[in-house]
Design brief:
single chain; about 190 residues; mainly alpha; Tetracycline Repressor, domain 2; 9 helices; about 75% helix; about 0% strand
Length: about 190
């Protein structure tokens, strides 16, 4: 694999920066390829050379933004680490970022070209972060070794996504704590 030309890397960075700004200002509807091109001063032809569609660009930009905004906690035990991670994701999702996430998720349902970018740049990175927390907990003997990191991720974070998409419950710290407590301690007495 040949390394990208520095000019090409600069163009990609400009596009991702412009896309992040547009997503922050007006969500996915504001991040059109025309607007991204104008803001980044990168031609549409160059943009389409690197991404198949605006959903792909937005997914990559949003994934990088979320990775930078949500650090991995290291409080020394599984309950505190996982509870804090659920709190951080909930808080991130409770504001304008949650709206962008919901817009991207909905767009990926109808945009098969953008879906792989959403999985690669957003979902895979988030799942890898939780897998790291889960592995730490496994290494310390704090969690059931028969439960995979994927299952733990779905149980802990799936309810946040459901609440974000349906709006039936607020994404507050109290609600995040209740969800993580139920997931980590179980539903049965």
């Amino acid at each position: 694999m040949t390394p990208e030309h520095p000019r090409s890397l600069k163009a990609k960075d400009s596009v991702l920066c412009a896309t992040t700004e547009l997503l922050t200002e007006g969500g996915l509807p504001a991040a059109t390829v025309d607007a991204i091109s104008a803001r980044s001063r990168v031609s549409k032809a160059t943009i389409y050379k690197h991404w198949p569609c605006r959903t792909a660009i937005a997914a990559e930009a949003f994934g990088k933004q979320m990775a930078a905004a949500i650090p991995l906690p290291d409080r020394g035990n599984a309950v505190d680490d996982l509870t804090e991670q659920v709190r951080l994701v909930s808080a991130f999702s409770a504001g304008p970022h949650g709206t962008v996430f919901a817009q991207l998720l909905a767009a990926c349902v109808a945009d098969p070209a953008g879906s792989p970018y959403f999985r690669e740049y957003f979902l895979d990175a988030r799942r890898a972060a939780v897998a790291e927390l889960w592995q730490r907990a496994l290494d310390r003997g704090e969690v059931d070794p028969e439960i995979t990191a994927d299952t733990a991720t779905d149980v802990l974070f799936g309810p946040l996504i459901f609440r974000l998409m349906t709006g039936h419950q607020a994404l507050t710290q109290e609600q995040a704590d209740a969800l993580s407590s139920a997931a980590l301690r179980g539903l049965l007495s």
